[in-house]
Structure formats: C-alpha cells, structure tokens
Design goal:
With 249 residues, the chain is an alpha/beta fold. It has two domains: 119 residues, ATPase, nucleotide binding domain (Nucleotidyltransferase, domain 5, 2-Layer Sandwich), CATH 3.30.420.40; 107 residues, Nucleotidyltransferase, domain 5, CATH 3.30.420. It contains seven helices and 16 strands. Strands 1, 2, 3, 4, 5 and 9 form a six-stranded mixed sheet that branches. It has a five-stranded mixed sheet with strand order 12-11-10-15-16. The chain has a three-stranded antiparallel sheet with strand order 6-7-8. β1 and β2 form a beta hairpin. The protein is globular and about 50 Å long.
C-alpha cells in the first residue's frame, strides 16, 4: 500500500524548513519547523540543520529534500546560493548517512512545481506550465502536459548582462530597496523573457513573496499566459519533496 504521510524538507538560500505531508491532500499534517540556512551554507553545516529539522519531529521513514541548484541522480551539480563545496557532491548519500533514513534529493523549484501541478494552481492544466519561485534567487519548474522538464534553472538566464535573479528575485527587491511598483517592472521584464522562450499557457508565481501576491501581481501587464499565485504558497517545496520521496520508495 502506498504511504500517505511522507516527510519533506525544503532547503533554501535563507531558511531550511520541513514537515510531514499528507499526500492524499497535499497538506502538511503538522506546523512546519524552520531554521535559518547556515552561512556559509557548507554541506556539513546544511546537513546539521536538516538533521535538526527532521529530528524535531522524531521522524522515521523516507525523507524528500529540495536543493537550490541542479540535481542529477542525487548529485548536486551547481550551487548558486550555497557554498561551492556542493558541486559534484553525492548529496543524497550524504543525507542518508547523516539521517540513517532513505533520502531523495531534487531541485527546489522542480519540487514546488510538482506540488503546484498536482494539488495547486497548475492542476489539470495542459500545455506548457511554468512555475517560478521568487526568493533568494529565481527558481523554475517547467512542465509540458503535466510532465516535468527537470533542472531548467531559468533564474540564470541573462537579463541586462547578468543573471536574471540578480535583478528580479525578491532578494534583489530588498537589496535595492525597491517599491512594489519598481520591482513589478523588473518582474515583467523577466516574464517577457521566459514568455518569448517557452510561450507558456500558465505562469505560477511561488516562493516566499507569493504570500504578498496582492502587492505586485495586479501591477503586472496583461500577457497571453495567465499569471497566478501559487496555491500552496511557500509550502510547495516541502510538499514536492515529500512527493519525490514517496515516488522513489
């Protein structure tokens, strides 16, 4: 019989949070527990923080974990917002050893996207769907008729000569002390870029800033693609991580 409650951990540039997830409903069964991401975010320091989150719940069983970078077969290939020591690491093996539990690791925005197309704003939407998470960087989950194209990392597309996330992430808003209307102009510019490349039918805006979507979504210009807030808000990564762990067992 398939497991219905699985543990998910979302590793972000600023925070590491986790909770058990009911995969029947896509909802957390307990209030999530969060710790600050260590700086520098070395593998050893992050593993310690993840252990604190998982052990807070006394959890035993499979664990799904998101990572803010490219993940292929459990190995972390890039590390834009964490320490460079992650590059080329067998992250899955590292977490399994530390937790003594079965672990599955995937890209953070891919996890958020999986949750949104299964339980949230992208459910039953055919064609191209793009889930974008705005936080420390910009993550992207690209789906074609519900199937994930993994590790797109579209926050690193070039925009005005630099990584797009340097201009348009929510961290960039804080760094440059931008008003909501000023930041919306940058978000629109970024959406124009991904619009031209992928012609999505639906763009779902997630990440920490999604809980304040009423401040900026109405300021964005009309476009062919519908632009909507994530329904699972900032819990989407946790839910998607748990989904991946359940699928792997």
């Amino acid at each position: 019989m398939a497991m219905t409650v699985v543990f998910g951990v979302d590793i972000g540039g600023s925070g590491i949070k986790g909770a058990p997830v009911d995969l029947e409903s896509g909802e957390l069964t307990e209030e999530r527990y969060k710790v600050l991401t260590p700086h520098p975010a070395s593998p050893e320091a992050v593993v310690g923080a993840v252990c604190e989150v998982v052990q807070h719940f006394g959890h035993q069983g499979p664990v799904g974990l998101t990572f803010p970078g490219v993940v292929v077969d459990g190995h972390t290939r890039t590390a834009a917002n964490v320490a460079q020591g992650w590059i080329g690491l067998d992250a899955e093996g590292l977490f399994q050893q530390a937790l003594d539990l079965s672990c599955t690791v995937l890209n953070d925005a891919d996890a958020a996207g999986l949750a949104e197309v299964t339980y949230g704003a992208g459910r039953e939407q055919d064609g191209v769907v793009l889930v974008l998470t705005f936080g420390t960087g910009i993550g992207s989950g690209l789906f074609v008729d519900g199937t994930l194209v993994p590790n797109t990392e579209l926050g690193h597309l070039e925009l005005r000569g630099k990584d797009a996330e340097r201009r348009a992430s929510s961290a960039a808003k804080e760094r440059h002390d931008l008003t909501w209307p000023e930041w919306a102009i940058r978000v629109d510019e970024y959406l124009d870029l991904v619009d031209r490349l992928f012609s999505p039918r639906l763009i779902v805006i997630g990440g920490g800033v999604s809980r304040k979507h009423d401040k900026f979504l109405p300021l964005l210009k009309q476009r062919e693609a519908r632009v909507v807030p994530a329904r699972l808000l900032n819990d989407a990564g946790i839910v998607g991580a748990a989904m991946a762990a359940a699928k792997a067992t």
